[in-house]
Specification:
Elements: E1 5-8, E2 10-18, H1 20-23, E3 34-40, E4 49-50, H2 60-66, E5 81-88, E6 94-96, H3 100-106, E7 114-121, E8 126-131, H4 136-144, H5 148-151, E9 152-156, E10 162-165, E11 171-173, E12 177-184, E13 190-193, H6 209-215, E14 227-230, E15 234-241, E16 246-259, E17 265-278, E18 281-286, E19 290-293, E20 299-312
Antiparallel strand pairs: 1-4, 1-19, 2-3, 3-5, 5-12, 6-13, 7-10, 7-12, 8-9, 8-11, 14-15, 15-16, 16-20, 17-18, 17-19, 17-20
Helix pairs in contact: 4-6
Length: 313
Amino acid sequence: MAEPLFLKSVMQEKIWGGNRLETEFGYDIPSQTTGEYWAISAHPNGVSLVANGRYEGTPLDTLYAEHRELFGNSESPVFPLLTKILDANDWLSVQVHPDDAYGLEHEGELGKTECWYIIAADEGAEIIYGHEAQSRTELAQMIEDKEWDRLLTRVPVKAGDFFFVPSGTMHAIGKGIMILETQQSSDTTYRVYDFERKDDKGNLRELHIQQSVDVMTIGEVANSHPDTIELADARLTTYVSNEFFTVYKWVIHGELAMNKQADYYLLSVLDGQGELEIDGQIYHLKKGVHFILTSDCQDWIFRGHLEMIVSHP
């Protein structure tokens, strides 16, 4: 019988983290500087466990390795996507991620193209999204001269905004922002600038200037344009669709029957509550729940009031 995979996942403490994963979502957090919840992850730095059904207790990486039929017999050697919720109680470092070719050659793992759905943002919150350098030479010089005000492109954000962040993009999430991030399953980050912050031992965090200059894209960042379908009981928005992932927002207010259009889906309930029916079985859904609809889930029904971010490779 087809069944969704609900997940129990790993919290990550960060120098810039806070407590909104607890106050907004009711998660148990390890400290008041909890920065990330790796909600759907098979990455070795934080593997989710299946929390229900016949695979209960199985790590997601093991399940992917041993039951590839649940994931459309995917040829990717690793589970390709990672879903996180981030609580930026302070600025994250200004950073960039490599593409697959550079990541595999230099770090032994995939590169990192990602995208952000802004769950919440304080008044006046900003991100860094791109830079103003016109050439790699100018980029290197501006970094060396610490001309951050001239170099970094700041963009104001509000709840409900979406940003596509391809590998090579200079970026940083600003203070007072909570996001859901869909990304390639990679943990390679090159820091360009960290606001001269020190860790709890009084040390500056490591920077990766040469790698950053090597992989940085020169030129304006092109964000994606959402495409929305309005139905009687739902609003279905496609934010981005590319070689790495397709990401949607599904808002249900009533009942919606759906059938499988992709090999499998990753789903995160950001607000509301309701239920999911598959093969006559009812599963209760509420804010903060994350699950996978595997390949054997052919069709399903959502009921209730639900706001979800959904993705697939």
